[in-house]
Structures are given as structure tokens and as C-alpha cells.
Amino acid sequence: MRQSPSSDRRFAVAGAIFIVCSLLSSVRVLTETPTPSSRHADNVAERSDWRFAALKTALPKQGIVGYMGSSSSPADYYLAQYALAPVVVDNSTDHPWVVGNFTDSVPVAPLKDWNGLELVKDFGKGVMLFARHPATSSQVKPAQVDSAHAYKDAK
Fold this sequence. Notes:
The chain has about 160 residues and is of the alpha/beta class. It has helices at about 5-30, 45-60, 75-85, and strands at about 65-70, 90, 95-100, 115-125, 125-130, 145, 150-155. The chain has two domains: about 5-40; about 45-155, no CATH class. The strands form two sheets. The protein has a five-stranded mixed β-sheet with strand order 2-1-3-5-4. A two-stranded antiparallel sheet has the order 6-7. Strand 4 (about 115-125) and strand 5 form a beta hairpin.
């Protein structure tokens, strides 16, 4: 049984419309897809380096520091580790020096004497440095941070 010429024409037009729409969709995908050189991912690690830059200059070149933060996300801790390398950042406050990584809205007053720690310097952007009180750790000497953000043992 043969179909009428008008049916054949309808199938041909429907097929042509389908093919044109598919090609237009493919062209749109190809033109809107960024090239690898033009992709700029949200570089969280770079922003983290920027946040911790002043603190990094104040820390010794090597050693271990503690860490405390207001976020329960391990990503914030890992970003602090990355930004402060080669200094080892331990997720514990049982160290002479402890890095604080907080949101800007965290009040510092309640943290001033938290767990035997004393605020040494607030570097801004939620980045702080704490030291253990000499009374709570016999091996820790008081330290001061000079204007260049370098530690000097108080003698």
C-alpha cells in the first residue's frame, strides 16, 4: 500500500525541521561552551592564600601550629593547611601557637581566654593567632608580633 504524496511531503518537512532544530541546538552548545583557556574556576585556594598571607609571614618557616575554627566543614581546615604550608597545621589546640579561622562576625572577647589560649593578633578577615598562656604550658615563652608580623621571643 502506497502513501499519498501529501503524507510523504509531511514526513519530509517534519524530518527537515527535526534536523534543523538538532543542528541549531548543537551549534548553541558549541558556541556557548568555554574553551579550556577561558575557564576561570572559582579559585578558593587562591583566595585562601590571600586570607592567610599576613599570618603566614608571622609564622616560623617550619614547625607545627594548632588550629581552631568556627566552621564544622573540614574544607576550611584543609584550605588553611594549604595556605600555610610548609608549616604543619594540626587540627588541635594543644600547641603553643594556634591559628584561628573564623567568620568575620565571631566575637573575639569570649575567645580571649578560651582553653588557656590568648589572642596574640587579629589579622582580619577572620584569621587570628593565639598563644598558649605560659601558666598552662611550661615550654611556651610569651611572644610578640612586631610591625612586620615576625615573631620575636620576648626575653
